[in-house]
Amino acid sequence: MATINLLDDNTRPRAPKLEGAAPHHQVPGEQLKMIHRYHLSQMSEVRRALHEIEAGVLKQTALSETIANLHMHKTMRMFGNLCGQECEILNAHHNIESQMLFPVLHDRGNDGIKKVVERLMAEHEIIHHYLQELEFHNTANQQNPTMESFNALKNTFLTLEKIIRSHFKYEETELEVAIGFYGVEF
Question: How many domains is the chain partitioned into structurally?
Fold first, then answer.
């Protein structure tokens, strides 16, 4: 796993200004922001449940129920995805970016865009590691709901959420115009 500091903006390459970019080139970047906002709202629901469990308002077993009741989970279940948890959806989102968005930007983009895309792909690897860790701790907490298993789950989730918020902000800022400018469809 790469050892880059995801939350240190000083280590992140910046996209150059794209000469000839027009306002309509921002439209796909705005669509990406909407997708990100949806993921963040779902993560906020999980965080809220974690805090309510910690405060004693909900039982630990309520976390699985909260995840199962997320709009995203219900939608994915309707389309045949049995897992449907946010981590799976986020992983799918990153796979789409890694397989459809980033390769095209890397091929069409200038050197600055290529460096940004390479950094984003490295960040996806680290986020994927935390998604796996979250899944592990969620399963452990379901099988043995102790304060220790709950705290491991909570701490992993809060770390993942912090990393994802930072990652999304970086991605949105650096690719806002580039996606439309280079004609990438995703």
Answer: 1
182 within 8 A of 174, measured Cβ to Cβ: no
DSSP 19: T
**Range of the structural domain that residue 95 is part of:** 25-181
Q: What is the pLDDT of residues 58-83, one digit of tens each?
A: 777 666 666 656 554 444 343 323 23
CA distance 2 to 18: 29
Q: What angle do CA 98, 99, 102 make, to 5 degrees?
A: 55
- Alpha carbon distances (Å) from 152 to 23, 63, 70, 148, 186: 45, 14, 22, 6, 35
Return the pLDDT at 137: 86
Query: In this structure, is residue 162 part of a structural domain?
Result: yes
pLDDT beneath 70: ranges in the chain: 1-4, 61-96, 99, 186
Query: What is the per-residue pLDDT for 180?
Result: 94
List the Cα angle 22/38/18 in 5-degree steps. Answer: 20
**Residue 172's domain is classified under what CATH number?**
1.20.120
Contact status, residue 131 vs residue 90, Cβ threshold 8 Å? yes
pTM of the model: 0.82
Amino acid symbol at 23: P
**Residue 137 covered by a domain:** yes
In a domain, 141, yes or no: yes
